[in-house]
Amino acid sequence: MNNVCLLGRLTRDPELRYTPQGGVAVVRFTLAVNRRLGKEKRQEIESNHGQTADFISCTAWRQTAELIANYCHQGDQIAVEGRIQTGSYEKDGRRIYTTDVVVNTMDFASRAGGGNYSSNNSYNQDYGNNNYNQVPNQSYNNNNNANNPPVNSAYNNDDFSNGDSNSDDEGFFPMDNDDIPF
Fold it and tell me: Which segments carry the region annotation Disordered (predicted)?
């Protein structure tokens, strides 16, 4: 399964373009995604002028592209879900290989400068069963309650709880590294 989820910050303002044939909206942007490092390891790498983030090239199409171009700016934190796509092209007689994330869905996380978006905004562009010749089923969700379960519902009951909400690890068995099969 080719599926990628990223949470990162835009390295610059996205620039919306349209394809010459058909006028389909497309936006290419780069996400700076922090590596999962402990505080000490991060400081060590930074003191040696090493990278603590990866810069991932992303491409979005149609209404997802328009949404990103119109509402996202340099430094904004967004979450994207999509797929990896590789390709290559010739430049000056040399073959250049590329790897991009083709964005299917995008969620706003936070604005540059620490502000949050006012509601739970997400944009979903569902391509269904990879039938690329079909028009995608697109939906924009701007409903504050869309992803929140009702207050007194079964979602509030933790099936794995042992009744003691103060202990995070009670009921779990200690595991030795020798017990892990890899």
Answer: 113-182
Going from the C-alpha of 165 to that of each of 82, 162, 171, the distances in angstroms are 36, 8, 12
Residue 175 burial by CB count (10 A; 0-12/13-18/19+): exposed, middle or buried?
Answer: exposed
Domains and CATH numbers, the chain: 4-110 (2.40.50.140)
Residue 156 has a pLDDT of 41
Per residue in 117-144, pLDDT tens? Answer: 443 444 454 444 333 333 344 434 444 4
pLDDT at 119: 39
Our CA angle for 84, 85, 87, nearest 5°, is 150
CA distances from 80 to 7, 51, 58, 155 (A): 7, 22, 9, 26
Which helix (H) or strand (E) element contains residue 40?
helix 39-47
Task: Quick: pLDDT tens for 56-110.
Answer: 999 999 999 999 999 999 999 999 999 999 999 999 999 999 999 999 999 888 7
Nearest Cα to Cα of residue 69 among 83, 81, 59: 59
Bridge partners, residue 161, by sequence = none
**Helices H / strands E in the chain, number of each:** 2, 8
Count of CB atoms within 10 A of residue 48's CB?
7
For residues 49 and 55, which has the higher predicted lDDT (pLDDT)? 55
Give the number of residues written for the chain.
182
